[in-house]
# Entry
Amino acid sequence: MGLDILKHLFTFIVLCLVQALVLNHINLFGCATPLLYVYFIMLFRRGFPKWAILLWSFFMGLCVDVFSNTPGVAAASTTFLGLLQPYILSLFIPRDSAEDLKPAIHTIGFARYTYYTIICVFIYIILFYTIESFNFFNWLQWLKDIGASTVLTVILILVIENVRKK
# Structure
């Protein structure tokens, strides 16, 4: 279990630094910003304690908030996704699968993992941009941000997962 915590801590630090130092400065076409740190929440295996997922998710959001100057937006969104992650994952894995199954392309298949990624990222990004904008006066920009950021983030996660697989 100690090695598992170290892997999560390493992934936490790397994704937080990549988001803060690189990805926060990308804004394609004025609407697409990759929010790659969502991948951290998606990596929790089946059977991982739900309270631990909530804590890890909250602290990831808190760190991103500190480095991105988005007070509470990422923390609220990641905590909500951390709450839903075990239930979303259970939609895509068989009931008789191992209790410590990690969601990955090579464990649940490409199509299921893609749907899992799309749902998690879409839920997160809708909540993130809704809290960030806090109004619907410019709803076309809101929709563009959600659509473009979802597509960009899903593509990045799938590329990383394919590279990590090998």
Q: What stands out?
A: The radius of gyration is 15 Å. The longest helix spans residues 139-165. DSSP finds seven helices and no strands in the chain.
